[in-house]
Amino acid sequence: MYGVMGKMLWVDLTSGEITVEVPADDLYRDYVGGYGIGVRLLYDRMPAGIDPMGPDAILGLTTGPLTGTRAITGNRFTVVGKSPKTGTWGDANCGGNFGPALKFSGYDAIYFRGISPKPVYLYVRDGKAEIRDATPYWGNGVDVEAELIKELGDDVKVAWIGRAGENKNLMASVMNDLGRAAARSGLGAVMGSKNLKAVAVAGTQKVPVADEAGLNAYVTESMRAAKAENSPAYQLFTTFGTSGLAAASAMNGDSPVKNWAGSGEVDFPGASKVSDVALDKYRVRRTGCWHCAISCGAYLSVPDGPYATAGAYEHRPEYETLAAFGSMLLMDDTEAMLKVNELCNRAGMDTIAAGTTIAFAIECFDRGIIDTVDTGGLELRWGNAPAIVEVTRQMAERTGFGAVLADGAEKAAERIGKDSAQYAIHVHGEEPGMHDPRYSPGMALNFHLDPTPGRHTTGGTGELEFFTGLDELPLPAPLNVHKRDYAAKGPAHRFIVNDRQVANSSGICIFSSFIAPPDALVRELTFVTGEPWDIGRIQATGERIQTLRHAFNLREGINPVRDCPVPKRCLDGTELKSGMGKGYVVDLDAMRDSYLSAVGWDKETTVPSAEGLRALGLDDLVKDLHPEAVAP
Amino acid sequence: MQYHARFFGLIGMNLEVPPGEPITFELPDPASYGDLLDVIGARFGSLFPPNVWNAETRSFHPQVVAMADGRSLASAGRETPLARDGTATFFVPIAGG
């Protein structure tokens, strides 16, 4: 096989046994890599109903065939497991430099099961793997990435958890590259539950590419054309990264405001203070993920004052962070924003979940449900930067009032009680991404139906509805649907979701579309794997992966129609005073019915038909989802 | 008539006010989106980053979105009438992060 190393590492942290698995070629062909292969293996090897933080839980760090190749933005890795936050399928996708290094170490993926009796890290170099003591790095906030690079060599790349993961906070993420997060699904808590502090990888092995000359020529020409065009989106990304979106999004109604109760500039006039140019004043230098031609990152520093950053520099906050701690909390203090971003990155904490949970706490404080006696003296008020910074610190350490909030809004509401649950904005336990469906309605379908609830990066019409509507873009049918034509969205949503499953599983970044030609995924997969890829195969493969992710949840007894409601605040814009979602009510039921019809899933139970499963090559799922159809 | 525009992020980084701050333009009454583009080009055309503004066609790059009252002015076309004392926002839409 091309594009893959052809080996996976299995590590039993209870026994210390390490084994190498050589998967069949069909696994790569049918499920690509990343969370595609991840969900196939975990569906098969992790029974339903297990404790996601127990010894039977499997945690995977996985790559795709484009990871570590010259493919445009081919640098992603994925963390997979059962989410302790939602009890659903869990995955999170991350750039940086860890993914390519994992492949260069000789493996496509590393899977962990069991629980180590003491803190450990795994060290893999050129095929050799060893479990090592991590006690010196546990419980003290030490910069484990820097320490392991110092100890093991400059070529080592490290995925790690911070204090949030060690404390098993359900919003803990897996980090790498000085602050890049695989944030969603709470899988950092799973890593923490296994006493696994870090995974350090290095190696000199090369990813085999079927047509290396073809790939090189294609990428070189694509990059030449992108740089020659120098489009505004390309310039925006290379200048400001996703922070270049924050102010416009807050003003137009894309960003949720004040715990999803407000919208637009009327409710958050300070948006420009935590966006693009304002942040850029603190820039030390630009940075990017491994071999990325966009390089949307930067390091920022607050050299002194109450919010001085602890290290030499910190990653520039991403849009999601700026919205979650900015418009959601009405916090427009630029330096406080950089400080909470640093705290979350060092602790390894999902900023969407953290900001949303603090927004919930502030609303509870504002409404008198909690007071300073509950918060340990913190004046949790809208925009009160010192209190927001302090409670963020407490959440990472699970101390003080932070212990109440450390597991997300749903759990915090359970702990606070007193009718506070109505102000906890989550979908089946996960705080939704920072894109308001009243502005981009298709986003509600992702929050509701994606197997990782509340998700914003797994494809769908919502991603193209941020400004106008798909009908105003030069797109062919069925993609050219008006964003308010709720009952007609299913086919377009299906197409984009399927495409994204393959893109995510292949190891590229969703932002590659800003510079790569539209056919890049097909062309690059073909060059790298030597397999004949086309749109039809992308669609079938993507639907196979998405169906299996969904089936994982069905087997857990989770039906999104019943169990994953999207809060009314995310759908009803009739009381908004500004923003482009003002006055609209998103008809989620109509969108869902349209999508379920398109994919052939039952509208009540969301169970895929037996025929549909077989058509996707998922015959083995028929016995689980349609036991009545299988002869005794 | 007066009309206002706000240029966000990349588009507004070199102008006379910080990005996102409203800038007021004097337009004929009644005025169209094309009238607004003409005065924007005359005042700021040389200040926008490369490829953002096309001086020949007196228009923004297609990736630049212009919104007013919840609708896309660029999609509606140059003849689209503008409301007195209204505000258009110009930005490059990206998502995620």
Kindly state the number of beta strands of chain A: 15
What is the CATH top level name of chain B?
A: Alpha Beta
Structural class given helices, strands, pairing of chain B? alpha+beta
The helicity of chain B comes to: 10-25%
Low-confidence stretches of chain B: none
Strand content of chain A: 5-15%
Overall geometric form of chain B? globular
How many DSSP helices of chain B? 2
How many structurally independent domains of chain A?
Answer: 3
Instruction: Count every beta strand of chain B, where a strand is a DSSP E run of 2 or more residues.
Output: 7
Oligomer: heterodimer
**Could you give the order of strands across the largest sheet of chain A?**
2-1-6-3-4-5
Q: Largest sheet of chain B, if any?
A: 5 strands, mixed
Number of helices of chain A: 26
Q: Under CATH, the topology of the largest domain in chain A is which?
A: Aldehyde Ferredoxin Oxidoreductase,  A, domain 1
Question: Largest interface, by Cβ-Cβ below 8 angstroms: which chains and how many residues each?
Answer: A-B, 41 and 32 residues
CATH arch. level architecture of chain B: Roll
Question: Percent range for helical residues of chain A?
Answer: 25-40%
Strand content of chain B: 25-35%
Notes on the structure:
The complex is a heterodimer of chains A (632) and B (97). Chain A has 632 residues and is of the alpha+beta class. Chain A folds into three domains: 8-202, Aldehyde ferredoxin oxidoreductase, N-terminal domain (Aldehyde Ferredoxin Oxidoreductase,  A, domain 1); 230-423, Aldehyde Ferredoxin Oxidoreductase Protein, subunit A, domain 2 (Orthogonal Bundle), CATH 1.10.569; 442-629, Orthogonal Bundle (Aldehyde Ferredoxin Oxidoreductase Protein, subunit A, domain 3), CATH 1.10.599.10. In chain A, 38% of the residues lie in helices and 11% in strands. In chain A, the strands form three sheets. A six-stranded mixed sheet of chain A has the order 2-1-6-3-4-5, with helices on both faces. Chain A has a six-stranded mixed sheet with strand order 8-7-12-9-10-11. In chain A, a hairpin with a 3-residue loop joins strand 10 and strand 11 (180-182). In chain A, helix 7 (212-229) packs antiparallel against helix 21. Chain B is of the alpha+beta class and 97 residues long. Chain B has a single domain, classed as Ubiquitin-like (UB roll), CATH 3.10.20. Chain B has two helices and seven strands, in the order E-E-H-E-E-E-E-H-E. Chain B has helices at residues 33-44, 73-76; strands at 2-7, 23-26, 53-54, 59-60, 65-68, 71-72, 87-91. The relative contact order of chain B is 0.28. The interface between A and B is large, with 41 and 32 residues.
